[in-house]
Amino acid sequence: MLLELNEVLIEGMHRTLSLMAKAGELTCLTGGTAAQHTRWLLAMQGFETVTNGYISIDGEPLTPHSSPAFRKLMAYAPARLCTQGEVTVYEPPSVQDVFSLKANRDLPISNGILGEEMRRVGGDQTDSRVQLIAVAALLNKSILMVDDPPIQAVDYLIKWARQGRIVVAASNNEELLKQADVIVEL
Question: I need a surface site. Which of 19, 37, 111, 150 has the fewest CB within 10 A?
Fold first, then answer.
């Protein structure tokens, strides 16, 4: 599986972005601001307006019409919960808040299963980023996108990629960048 951005420009940005994120690799977006990281990850899901270039999965273009189907292949762990594509804002989120999101409401995931996955992710179990990564991983999708993962989650993300999934993380953390397979400067 291949997620490709070819000379993509999103509304309000001044530089294009090109990348090829492959299954089995940890791809890291770096440089720029946290807000820019989030916007690029949202663009890959079809939530941002692309004014130039294209985004595709295995050669199939992401369009406003195809984006809902594409998002079924993706799991997204934001740095914090936001209203993009959702109904409610929770800052900071609790585990229960995560399941209030419309995309997660019907998941057959108990607090016990979620707690076990959070231990696998590593780091501070009260860190909302750990909780969100665990929920995204439990969705068991082909593409995992993570915004500002804690450094303790890097081994988990690498393991996830090595299982044949596309993993795209956005971070300026030097330790994460050292372990990434592909680094893309914004």
Answer: 111
